[in-house]
User: What shape does this take?
Amino acid sequence: MPTELELLLIKPDGVRRGLIGEVLRRVEMKGLRIVALKMLKLKRDCAEALYDIHRGKSFYQGLIDFMTSGPVVAVLVEGDGAVEVVRNLIGPTDGRRAPPGTIRGDYSISILENVVHAADSRERAIYEARVVFDPQCEDSSESWTSVLERTSRP
Assistant: This one.
């Protein structure tokens, strides 16, 4: 299989539930390489660009609201057949149908709160990576400095 790039996002529920390390561990244990990693809060227009293929569907607005509700972790993964390997590692979108041993099968709460997102093709991975790794994509309404200031007060 050719070396590919894949975009994996740890969604707000995965970040909130403290699953970042577990997701990254599984990616690395599978033999994939993490080549870029970034925590950010998505701007609404970036979330809309990320999920543009779902625009007009009944769940679209709820998905955008959810994806902008808290920080996500964007991971660019590289490896042989990375798209297929990551898709198999995370399992089907509906965690109720995802087999045990997959990330969604082990940790998903619902179709929406299913811990992770991954691109479904090489082309889509590159498009989505360009969206989320664009510096203009990050919502700076709560900057990391303000988090540090807020949490360091006595």
Summary: The domain at 3-151 is CATH 3.30.70.141 (Alpha-Beta Plaits). The chain is about 40% helix and 20% strand. The chain has one domain: 3-151. The helical segments are 12-16, 20-29, 44-50, 60-67, 82-90, 103-107, 122-132, 144-151.
